[in-house]
Design a protein that fits this description.
single chain; mainly alpha; 8 helices; 7% strand; PX_dom; 3 strands
């Protein structure tokens, strides 16, 4: 059984509340298998409803596949350093499960969550690439994806990669020390928290997976037990047959309830935990952007200070070269100031993102545990009621 779509608090949507109030509502629906063999993939209908003037109209329906969602994610990650880009579900899956109903529905929900988190973010929702993703026809989307998601998007990318490799080789040959790392009490505390959170979430998700598996195994065992008890009663006859048949029926009924609760645990408990494991990966990616920005800021600042000292020496020792060196210094100083601004911008954004992340995490994880406890309480009551209902008949049978 496949569970229904998650509640709005887990898949944030912009409500079309009061008439005329700005809203942006997106639904990822109708997964359909396309193609055959290794070329097969799942397509989705992405329905956008909005009254925002920058969009083409009040409603737009486009067809998208997973690689289109990847394109959106990667473009946002390139353009919005310092913002936690919502995570995508895993790309790879075991081949035999890749097109199972359960896997397809889990992925559809995760993609719906992904795009709605972007649409609810104060900065990401204004992105041009989001509008392209939500409005471009399939041909235009294919062109955008093929142009920007190649191994090298532009010739400059190849040159930059070559420079990076060359720099790393030089560092090894020359025995340079490792790049300096940002180290403040606040940032160290943040890093420790993120790594601890990742470990604890991963362990909780692992145990949730085991709970789902245990419910399914117990449900299967009850179904087989029910059949066996019915057959046992049939060969006994008379009163035993009727009582054992009822025990068997109760077992089969509880088997179905356990399977349903396993689905409920998967969709509303394990999957939200897994989603936050992925979200922590997004935070770590932003921390890497921050580390790179800090190194650039630090290296340029150090080089600026060094050049500034040399410039003062040239002013008195070699006036002919002073004008050229001064021009170079001004360029370096501008680059240094720009790198500092970039780093400080990422730090500011990260602080804002962390506050937003903590608030959303509290709501989502709280809801997941509420669903878990509610489902377990109902299941326990159903099991107790089922067995309690046949106790009088079993007692009568044992004393007759």
């Amino acid at each position: 059984m496949i569970s229904p779509e998650r509640s709005p608090s887990q898949s944030p949507r912009s409500p079309a509340a009061a008439a005329g109030a700005p809203f942006l509502s997106i639904s990822v629906t109708d997964p359909v298998k396309m193609g055959t063999g290794v070329q097969a993939y799942i397509s989705y209908r992405v329905i956008t409803k909005t009254n925002l003037p920058e969009f083409e109209g009040p409603e737009k329906i486009v067809i998208r596949r997973y690689s289109d969602f990847e394109w959106l994610h990667d473009r946002l990650a390139e353009r919005y350093k310092g913002i936690f880009i919502p995570p995508l579900p895993e790309k790879n899956a075991v081949e035999k499960f890749r097109f199972s109903k359960e896997f397809i529905e889990l992925r559809r929900q995760a993609l719906d969550m992904f795009v709605n988190r972007i649409a609810s973010h104060p900065e990401l929702k204004q992105s041009e690439v989001l509008r392209v993703f939500l409005q471009a026809d399939e041909e235009k989307m294919d062109r955008a994806r093929s142009y920007e998601t190649g191994i090298f998007k532009r010739p400059a990318d190849f040159l930059q990669m070559f420079k990076d490799v060359q720099s790393k080789v030089s560092d090894v040959v020359l025995g340079k020390e490792k790049p300096v790392e940002e180290s403040t009490p606040e940032y160290e505390k943040l890093k420790n928290y993120i790594f601890e959170l990742e470990n604890h979430l991963a362990e909780a998700q692992k145990q949730a997976y085991r709970l789902v598996k245990r419910h399914r195994e117990l449900g299967q065992s009850l179904a087989e037990f029910g059949k066996a008890i019915k057959l046992l009663g049939a060969c006994e006859g008379d009163m035993m047959e009727k009582v054992f048949s009822e025990v068997g029926s109760k077992s089969e009924m509880l088997s179905i309830k356990l399977q349903r609760e396993a689905d409920n645990l998967l969709f509303n408990f394990e999957e939200p935990l897994k989603d936050y494991v992925r979200a922590v990966q997004s935070i770590k990616a932003t921390m890497m952007d921050r580390a790179n920005a800090f190194r650039q800021h630090f290296d340029l600042d150090q080089e600026r200070k060094y050049k500034e000292l040399n410039l003062e020496k040239l002013k008195f020792m070699n006036p002919e070269k002073y004008a050229e060196a001064e021009s170079e210094f001004r360029e370096l100083k501008a680059d240094s100031e720009e790198a500092t601004k970039k780093f400080e911008h990422i730090v500011r954004l990260m602080n804002e993102e962390l506050a937003r992340f903590q608030e959303q995490k509290t709501a989502d994880i709280g809801l997941a545990f509420h669903e878990f406890a509610k489902g377990q309480a109902k299941l326990a009551k159903d099991i107790a009621d089922a067995w309690r209902s046949i106790l009088p008949k079993l007692e009568a049978c044992s004393t007759s």
